[in-house]
Structures are given as structure tokens and as C-alpha cells.
Design goal:
Mean pLDDT: 82
Number of strands: 14
Shape: elongated
Number of domains: 1
Organism: Clostridium fessum
Radius of gyration: 23 Å
Structural class: alpha+beta
Oligomer: single chain
Number of helices: 6
Helix content: 10-25%
Largest sheet: 10 strands, antiparallel
Protein name: Integrase
Length: 223
């Protein structure tokens, strides 16, 4: 190896040893996944009258057609786990065909209203939350943190015969472009230790099933 390249390699090795000997996670934040492109990541979309799990989410729980949807009002999280069709509060979260499963809109106005009220959300918006797949006590779960939503304006339907506003100050709302709350958009993420704690589901005791929460179960037979 030429002397110049040897000197550079020696310098890099010395720098690596220095970094290794002094490294600490103190002061580092884990950058939020939400700040990157995530079109193909598992997610739930919550509207004021329905919820929808995307195809990536459904594919992550292999062969699962029915699920339990659970809500934790303290942690502000939704957890989803697979279950059998005849289990209490079982919900069909996808359309199952012989060769594939695909997403379906789950009508659930009572549940959505409770979530919107709990979170203080705007009824003129829909909320997309990324799902994190974890293993807990031998089960595969999806965890959705409602405190980190991507927000989309819903298109406003005009009544028949009603004309659009003519004010020059009125701009059309982009219903396809999402945004995050200021406390999310203005930060990289959370400290490493806090991130580890947030990633844990220590118990299911604090979660309430969707059926118990609303007293109703959405129609599981409608597509």
C-alpha cells in the first residue's frame, strides 16, 4: 500500500478507536420514521366514521382475517392482534379471497367519534398513523401511536345547487398532502432511552377492546 494511503488508513483507524472508546447514546435522538417517505409502510387511516388498514398492514399479519382492535386511553395507542372469527369482539379487517387479502373500509362511527373526542382531533380531517409490528407473549401485534398522526384535510362536499366560495382569499385545500402537528414536525425524534420505553408493550391490561369501548361491533359482513 502506498505510504499516503497507509497514513490515511491509520488515521481512520485511530479516529474509529477514539469514537468507540468515548461513545455514548447521551444526547442522541432516534429520528422519527414519520419524517421519511412511508407510502408502503403499515398504517391505519382513521376518519370520523370509519377506519381502514392499508394492504401493507394486512400483509404483515399472515393469513389473519379477523382481529381484535384495542385502545389505551392512557398511552393513546391502538393495538391490533389477530383472532378467530367466532371470538368475542372479532372484527373482519380485510376482504379475503382465495388468492389474496385486501384492505376494506370498516364503518365504525361510534368508535371514531370516541377516538376523535379522546384525541381532540378536527372532524374535518382524517388521520394516518404508522403501525409498528412487535412480538408480545408469543403473539404478533401492531401498535399505532395516536400521538404521532399524519393529518390530511378531508374534501368538503357541497350540497346540491351550492356554489363554491368566490373569495379571492379562498384557496383549494390539498386533501392528498399530509402534515404533522408542530411538536412532531419541529423535532427529530425522542432520546434513545425514551424511545426504548415507548417501543415496549408491557401489558395488555390497559387496553380496551373496540366492542367494549363503543358497546357496538361494526358490521363484519359488509365489504
Amino acid at each position: 500500500m502506498p505510504p499516503k494511503e497507509q497514513a490515511l488508513e491509520t488515521e481512520r483507524d485511530a479516529k474509529a478507536e477514539e469514537l468507540e472508546s468515548t461513545f455514548s447514546y447521551d444526547g442522541y435522538q432516534v429520528v422519527r420514521k414519520e419524517l421519511f417517505a412511508h407510502l408502503r409502510d403499515p398504517a391505519i387511516v382513521i376518519r370520523k366514521d370509519s377506519i381502514t388498514f392499508n394492504t401493507a398492514c394486512i400483509s404483515g399479519l399472515e393469513d389473519v382475517v379477523y382481529v381484535h382492535v384495542m385502545f389505551n386511553s392512557d398511552l393513546k395507542r391502538i393495538v391490533v392482534r389477530g383472532c378467530d372469527e367466532n371470538d368475542k369482539d372479532a372484527l373482519r379487517w380485510c376482504i379475503a379471497k382465495p388468492d389474496k387479502r385486501k384492505s376494506r373500509k370498516m364503518s365504525c362511527k361510534p368508535f371514531s367519534e370516541l377516538v376523535y373526542n379522546e384525541m381532540g382531533w378536527d372532524s374535518d380531517c382524517r388521520y394516518k398513523i404508522l403501525g409498528y409490528r412487535i412480538n408480545f407473549e408469543g403473539e404478533t401485534l401492531y401498535v399505532f401511536d395516536l400521538l404521532v398522526p399524519e393529518i390530511f384535510h378531508e374534501s368538503q362536499k357541497r350540497k346540491k345547487g351550492e356554489s363554491a366560495p368566490q373569495s379571492e382569499e379562498t384557496k383549494p385545500v390539498n386533501t392528498r398532502k399530509g402534515f404533522y402537528p408542530d411538536d412532531i414536525a419541529g423535532t427529530f425524534g425522542v432520546p434513545v432511552e425514551e424511545h426504548l420505553k415507548e417501543s415496549e408493550v408491557k401489558q395488555i391490561d390497559g387496553y380496551v377492546s373496540m366492542g367494549i369501548l363503543t358497546g357496538k361491533v361494526p358490521n363484519a359482513s359488509a365489504d
